[in-house]
Write a structure and sequence with these properties.
Length: 163
Amino acid sequence: MARPIPSRDEIADRISAYVYGNILVLASLVVLHHDEIERGFGFALVLGTAVSTFIAHAFSEGLGASVRQNEHASMQHILRDSLPIVSAASVPAALMAVGAFGWIEPVVCLRLAEAWVIVRLAITSFIVGRLQGHPVTGRTWFASLALAAVAVAIVAIKVVLTH
């Protein structure tokens, strides 16, 4: 049985979770030092950030949906729309584990994880453009770089204000 095509609202919710999850995962990565990765703290921090953000996002989305629709939204629907937060942490967490096991230098793992998240943020403009039926143009490329730059700036603000 084929799953129904998500509505524009569902897609918007998933993109929001995708960007939010990537920003918070990047914020957890940029504060790490190589010795923390070697001890496994990097893996725990990235995983903990993803899990706690996923739970907070699902909880707040459920409350928001009940206000918007004047009824309780399906928990399955809310959890599915929050999954991009977990996907944001999958590769960075794996890279932190690789660094902890010493298979690759921890600092290399950290830089690869940070780059991975920044690229994920940058491609958001391509995803949104495709969903809106727009062709890839120079504007799409500019928007992707601008989106990544703004996300990195948000991460910098978060780090300065919270660490």
